[in-house]
Amino acid sequence: MMNGMTVPKAKIAVTLDQDVLARVRAAVADGRARSVSAYVEHALAGQLTAEAEFDAMLAEILAATGGPPTAKERREARRLLDGVVE
Length: 86
Known about the structure:
single chain, mainly alpha, about 0% strand, elongated
């Protein structure tokens, strides 16, 4: 916020599963969310934060282990994940 003014919002349209929307509306009705828009904004902000934290953790791990895996390491990991044993 700047000088007591609210940050401008952008209006969009989204398509949601009816059950998900019903649960969000119930959260609003129960007072657990200010509005459907506030609920969605909070969920999206949480997702963006989680992604940023994951990216930072991955960068830290890669830095500690010498960088991204080589093609050979990827093939070996894929082989192990697929359950192929020699």
